Amino acid sequence: MTATLTTVRSGALTTVQDAGRRGHAHLGVPRSGALDAPAMRLANRLLGNDPGAAVLETTLTGCALRPDRAVTLVVGGAPCPVTVDGRPAAWGAPVRVPAGAVLNVGAATAGVRSYVAVAGGIAADPVLGSRSTDLLSGLGPGPLRDGDVVPVGTPARPVALPVAAPWPGPPAELVLPVRPGPRADWFTPAALRTLTSATYRVSPHSNRIGLRTEGPPLERARQGELPSEGVVLGAVQVPSDGRPVIFLHDHPTTGGYPVLAVVAEPALAAAAQASAGTPVRFTPG
Questions:
Q1: How far is C-alpha 206 from the chain's CA centre?
Q2: Would you call 105 helix, strand, or coil by DSSP?
Q3: Which residue among 7, 59, 133, 278 has the highest number of C-beta atoms inside a 10 angstrom radius?
Q4: 167-181: burial string, b at 16+ Cβ within 10 Å, e else
Q5: 226 to each of 27, 169, 210, 229, how far by Cα in Å?
Q6: CA dihedral sign, ordered 134, 69, 3, 33
Q7: What is 204-223 written as a DSSP string?
């Protein structure tokens, strides 16, 4: 019989995430999955899990969990204080949590999203090949609420403690390489220069669907409505206020605002950890 985790404190937003459900955009289903995929993979590797095993992704305020059996966990991603029954525990390295003890993942001291990986992985029921929570479509398990019980899989092998690993820090400035999007001709040459020369900032209204920015609006060369068309991960969509929005993993598969540019996917992990107010620069890439 495997362990379960009871949610003592769910935090601002804690969801189950893995490598995502790829290949279903034609059905209107986005990829979803961990926004900071490198952090998820590293946490899993420290436990001997498959790199894409399901984890818990917290947002800003962390969460608290109580296992019914002893488990080994790693808390990584955004740096935060970690305690077990009130005693300090390691961040970024495996921690043994006894049965009935409370693991508290504190508020992020930098960045946005912390990841809780457990030996054996989170064993929520898969939907379309993934255990990820999709906030837009509602697929997968819902965001955790206080009292929810989360199943844990069977560990592949015992974990040797302790294990150290280098963790990248959250960005002090977010630099996003972009290439032209399918609707770049809807904008003036001045707008294109502004995009790659001005400094924007991360808006507090950002979420798993999109990273919103604050800064100079981008002027259109064409007005009017655009029929809804397909959009991809990393698309830089410009709504009516003229300020760029970078689509993240829970983005819709179609949209009606013009896509000026597309951010290279490897840069999106840093976007997942960019807190409100972080400077954003778009660079030709």
A1: 11
A2: strand
A3: 133
A4: beebbeebebbbeeb
A5: 21, 39, 20, 8
A6: positive
A7: TT--SSEEEEESPPPPBSS-
Residue 235 and residue 183 in contact, taking contact as beta carbons nearer than 8 Å: no
**Is the per-residue pLDDT at 253 higher than 80?**
yes
User: Backbone phi, then psi, for 168, in 5-degree steps?
Assistant: -65, 145
Tokens, residue 263: 């951010």
Model pLDDT, residue 29: 85
Read off the tokens for 260: 């000026």
Using CB atoms within 10 Å of the CB of residue 92, give its burial: 0 to 12 exposed, 13 to 18 middle, 19+ buried. Answer: buried
What would the DSSP string read from start to end of 120-161?
T-B-PPPBTTB----TTT--SSPPP-TT-EEEB---SSPPPS
Per-residue pLDDT at 51 exceeds 80: yes
- Which helix H or strand E contains 195, and what residues bound it? helix 189-195
Rounded percentage of the chain residues whose pLDDT exceeds 70: 99
Alpha-carbon distance 231 to 204, whole Å?
Answer: 23
Q: Which helix (H) or strand (E) holds 269?
A: helix 268-272
- pLDDT tens-place string over residues 106-158: 999 999 999 999 999 999 999 999 999 999 888 999 999 999 999 999 998 77
Question: What Å distances lie between residue 121 and 5, 12, 125, 151, 258, CA to CA?
Answer: 11, 22, 12, 9, 39
Task: For residue 242, give both structure tokens.
Answer: 């003229």
Measured in residues, the chain has a length of 285
200-209 mean pLDDT? 97
Amino acid present at 272: A
The token pair that represents 61 in the structure block: 């305020």
The answer to whether residue 159 scores a pLDDT higher than 90 is no
Burial class (CB in 10 A: 0-12, 13-18, 19+), 154: exposed
Task: For residue 34, give the nearest of 11, 18, 22, 21 by alpha carbon.
Answer: 18
